[in-house]
Structures are given as C-alpha cells and as structure tokens.
Amino acid sequence: MEEQLKECQEKFKLTFPDDLLIDEFALTLGMNLELHRQVLVAFLKGEETYNYQPLLGSPLSMGFGEQVTITQLDKSISITRLEFLDLMFGIDFIYSPIYPIGTVLTLDDSLLPTSVQARVRDFTPQQQVVVVAQKTIIDSQFVDYLAYPYPQGVMADVQPILVGNIAIKTVEEQGPETELSQEYGKYLRDRIAQTGRMALNYHAWKESEMSG
C-alpha cells in the first residue's frame, strides 16, 4: 500500500483493503480532487454508477450497490460501502489542501447539512463564505473549516457555518499564506492524525450507512 495511505489507515483505523487497485484509485482521485468530489457526490446521491474517461490514461468505473465495485481495465475490486467511505476520507485527508484564514469559498449548499442550507441562502445568495478557522474539533470529530457569510463576515448573532471539503464548489480568493500559516497547517494535519478523529461529515455518513 502507498505509504501515506497506509499511515492514514493506521492513524484513523480505516477499514479498506490493501490492494494495488486501491492505491491506483486513491492516487487518481488524490491528484484530481474535483473528480474525488464528483465520485463522492454520486455515491451520496444514490447514483448506480460513475464513469471517468481521462484524456490520457485508462478509464475508471465505479458501481454503487450493496457493495462498491471499482474497475480499471481488466482489474476490479469490490469493497463494502463503509470501506469506500473510509477510503474516500483517507484520500481527502491526505490530498486536500488546508486553505488559509481569509479564503473566500463558493459552496454547493446542497452538500451542507439541511439545517444549514436555508441559513446560508438567507445571508449569502451566492453561497459564498469566508474561512475563519481550520480543522476544528467538534463533538469528538473535526470539521475542515468554520466560515461566515461573505462579504458580511463575523456577525454576533450568527453561528459559524461548518464546511467540509466536499461542499467547496470553487475557491474564489485564497487568503494570505505565509511560512507561519504553512507550518500551522502542517501542525493541524499532524494533530488531527494523532487524535485519530474522523471528519464530522464522513462520521455522519458512516453512521447513516450503519443505521440503514
């Protein structure tokens, strides 16, 4: 297994199998995070299949049923839905950047918790927010970002919006990045890995799968 993926699996006790196709799948999605997002959205929205045809390289197809089947050329592997969510979390954690404070994001609000969607639309019809905190631990898990509506920013009577990477549609403007902010991002990633706490959205999706 690819070293970073194996380390992530051990830290978070992730359940996907050690397999060469899993490694190749993780690398493909990790180097194309929009593809990672599209695959995860297809899974969460109950699509039966997702097919990816790159300009160069081999096509990749996924089937989402009682198990998730990943196929590339003559190689195929089937894993459980919980293993698939573990794998997608591992890819997300390893490859997704940690955007600095002040970054302005446009969200896909359909991928936010239902309780948050109306609030986002009320304050920011363009679904734009500004990042005010990163990798914050809440309810024994972590959220990728805390954010407030943009351009309003922090408001005394408004709770911050919990933003997972999957809900990020576009990065409109990246906040200032310095050597200190880069070091802090690395610290946050290491700290979360040491705690072994999974992202709150993945934890919720796994609980939903287990409850049927």
Characterise this structure.
The chain is of the alpha+beta class and 212 residues long. It contains 7 helices and 9 strands. It has helices at 3-12, 20-30, 33-44, 81-95, 114-123, 179-195, 200-211, and strands at residues 49-52, 60-64, 67-72, 75-80, 104-107, 128-138, 141-149, 161-163, 168-173. The chain has a 5-stranded antiparallel β-sheet. A 4-stranded antiparallel β-sheet has the order 1-2-3-4. The longest helix is centred in the last third of the chain and has 17 residues, at 179-195. The mean pLDDT is 91.
pLDDT averaged residue by residue? 91
* SS elements, strand count: 9
Structural category? alpha+beta
Fraction of residues in helices? 40-55%
Task: Map the helices and strands.
Layout: H1 3-12, H2 20-30, H3 33-44, E1 49-52, E2 60-64, E3 67-72, E4 75-80, H4 81-95, E5 104-107, H5 114-123, E6 128-138, E7 141-149, E8 161-163, E9 168-173, H6 179-195, H7 200-211
Antiparallel strand pairs: 1-2, 2-3, 3-4, 5-6, 5-9, 6-7, 7-8
Helix pairs in contact: 1-4, 2-4, 4-7
